Amino acid sequence: MTPSKGIISIVEEHLSDTITGSRFVSGGSINIAYELQTAGGKYFLKVNHKALYPGMFAAEAEGLKLLAQTKAVKVPVIVLQGDAGNESFLLLEWVDAKRGSVQATQNLGAQLAQIHGNTADQFGLDHDNYIGSLPQSNRKHDKWSDFFIQERLQPMVSLAADKRLLEYADAGNFEKLYSKLPGLFDEEAPALLHGDLWSGNYLTTPADEPYLIDPAVYYGHREVDLAMTALFGGFSNEFYIDYNQAFPLAEGWQQRTDLWNLYPLLVHLNLFGAGYLDRVRDAVKNYL
C-alpha cells in the first residue's frame, strides 16, 4: 500500500525532494498512515477521505499549533496539510519513538501542568474539531457545567439513543445527573486541554522526551485530561505526583474521574457498541 500519486506529487513539490520509499504504519482506525522516506529525512503522513471527515486534519493541525504555542511540551512539526482529489492528508515530522517509560510520563506530568496554565475567558474554542471520528462541538460557555452538559454529554447521549444503545431509563438518569453536576466539582478557570489524553496519544523519544499527538483541544476543566489518563492506564504514579507538584489539583479530584470519563465512554459506546454500556451506566449511577 502506497500513498496516491496526487499526494506524492504535492508532497514532493512542497519538500523540493523526492520520495524514495514508503511503508504503511499504524495510524488508528480512521486514517491510513505512512512513513515516507526522502533524501532529506523521514516524515509521517496521515490520509483519509475528505468527504467522510471534512476539516479533520485542519482541526488537528490547529490543535497541534495551540499546544506548541504553550512551549510546554513537544509536538510533531506540521510540514503540510491539504487535499488531493477526494483525499485529505496531514504531513508531520517523523518522531523516533520507543516504549513509554516512567521517566517520560513523569516529564509529561509537569509539562501537562504547564499546558493547563494557559487559560481563556470561556470554556470551549473558536472552532469545532473531532474526538476520534466523531464531530466535537466547542461552542463557548461561561460555565463549565453548561459546556460539559450541552457540548459533551447531551450530543453523545442523543447519538447513543438514536442508535438504540441507551434506553429511556438511561436518558432519565443523565437528566438527573445534569441537575446535580454544578455541585459536584470545584470551579476553575478554563484550561487548555489536550482533550484525548490516553496513552496512545503521546510518543516517547529515546531521550525520554514526550511528544503529544492527535489532540482534540479546547478550553475546559483540567481534571478532564487527568481523568482520561486513567481510563485505559499507561501513566505512572510519578506522572500524577509531578503534575500535582507543579499545579495542585482540588481535593477529591480522584473521585471525579468517572464523572469526566463519561464523555469518552459515551464516545466509545457510539463508536464501538454496547460493550461500553455497563461502564457508562455505572459511572452515571456513581453520582446520582
Summed up:
The protein is built from 10 helices and 11 strands. It is an alpha+beta fold and 288 residues long. The model has no long low-confidence stretch (mean pLDDT 95).
| N-to-C order of helices and strands | HEEEHEEHEEHHEEEEHHHHH
How does the major sheet shape up? 5 strands, antiparallel
Instruction: Tell me the CATH topology of the largest domain.
Output: Aminoglycoside 3'-phosphotransferase, Chain: A, domain 2
Structural class: alpha+beta
Number of strands: 11
Give the number of domains. Answer: 2
Question: Can you tell me the CATH architecture of the largest domain?
Answer: Alpha-Beta Complex
Number of helices: 10
What does this structure look like?
With 288 residues, the chain is of the alpha+beta class. It folds into two domains: 5-93, Phosphorylase Kinase, domain 1 (2-Layer Sandwich); 102-285, Aminoglycoside phosphotransferase (APH), C-terminal lobe (Aminoglycoside 3'-phosphotransferase, Chain: A, domain 2, Alpha-Beta Complex), CATH 3.90.1200.10. 40% of the residues lie in helices and 19% in strands. It is built from ten helices and eleven strands. It has a five-stranded antiparallel beta sheet, sandwiched between helices. A hairpin with a 2-residue loop joins β4 and β5. The longest helix is centred in the middle third of the chain and has 19 residues, at 144-162. The chain is globular, with a radius of gyration of 20 Å. 36% of the residues are buried.
